[in-house]
Fold this protein.
Amino acid sequence: MATDVEVVQHGTAEINGCCKKGPGYASPLEAMAGPKESLIYVTCIYTGTGRGKPDYLATVDVDPNSPAYSKVIHRLSMPYEGDELHHSGWNSCSSCYRDPSAARRYLVLPSLISGRIYAIDTLKDPRAPSLYKVVQPDDVIQKTGLAFPHTAHCLASGEILVSCLGDKDGKAEGSGFLLLDSDFNVKGRWEKPGHSPLFGYDFWYQPRHNTMISSSWGAPSAFTKGFNLQHVTDGLYGRHLHVYTWPGGELKQTLDLGNTGLLPLEVRFLHNPSEAIGYVGCALTSNMVRFFKNPDGSWGHEIAIAVKPVKVQNWILPEMPGLITDFLISLDDRFLYLANWLHGDIRQYNIEDPANPKLTGQVFVGGVFQKGNSVLAEAEDGSTYQVDVPDVQGHRLRGGPQMIQLSLDGKRLYATNSLFSTWDRQFYPELLEKGGHILQIDVDTEKGGLAINPRFFVDFGAEPDGPSLAHEMRYPGGDCTSDIWI
């Protein structure tokens, strides 16, 4: 299988007997037949931990035949402190597959707090990426008024689109979409004037349906201070999906998810570009909402999965939501995986019937009411219980599952446990003291099922500069949450 490095060096390469034109894969199903992952890039955070160190990008060896298996083999520190690296994307992906001049070379790292955006060169040495360019926040603010950048996706044009969650003062009314050119110069806003969202967060586009849909976390002035339920009542958090024309940037419909759709975070369409169906995870109410295109061209929505809150003792509220903080869809659109950060479980659902997901696997890898914690869960009969979470390589699992990433073939699921440093401190203070970690979950793609891989544990509590918080993960060759097909 030719790598992107070979494509750049030799101009063309063969994949399944077909000439490879640009980065990525011709289709999601071809991506499933891609090479097994051997490296994974992870955003690691010192911001908010009090350690006075810059955040960094870690390269982790995930090749089970390597002597460095499940170890950090390289750390690229950012040149500034206080960034809060969060999500990441590529300068080019499968949406540019038909462009022979494009290459998946730069990993785009938006900094949620500082507003900087880093371009990281992964092509010179994939095992030891290097800094290529820094987009400074003053440049972004001056030209667009945008701040708090979050999600980055490449476009088929070679440009890069970045969602921004507010203005420099943290007001949600200032949210919108930043457009960068192929060399990371600020071009301006993507959306049409007067078509900015109520709140910003994640987005995904489906070109064959001329649609982009974005979600809405909340006002940076609220979430950067920690979670306060009063801020929800005060209207500082979102409950909407925003439907845009693609690539026109006109806001054509706003879907109000109501009180059952509070804090909609990650949004994903099915990978098949012909499908006009997707899901969004609503964190606070812990519902997976399915959205779909109606016969008249409008968009509708319904709850597809409901994670019931658990009655608890010794916690800040009498009931605890699962807090769905991340989910993804396998490349063949058969399975959906979600992470309940507070409850501590990862779930697998069969979504071959997208309107009726079926639970096929569940594994607990942490959570607030795991054994050894003070919080007790209440059963329906009034008895109390705690979840028994196994140690991995002698390590007690900390926090709960947060970001997840799936191998191309769908058989290995990776999970980190840090959400956002301020919220980590609030809900899982031991993460700041002991650091994050990455787990690998073995996936049964035939009968369904999830199991912790006992051989794999990446401990960010043992880093040279002290414990760090591990957040989002990317493979050098792209993955099911980075690539969009045209």
User: Anything to note?
Assistant: Residues 28-474 form a domain with the Methylamine Dehydrogenase; Chain H fold (CATH 2.130.10.10). The chain has one domain: 28-474. The helical segments are 4-10, 28-32, 137-144, 220-223, 229-233, 421-427, 429-434. The first strand starts at residue 14 and ends at 15.
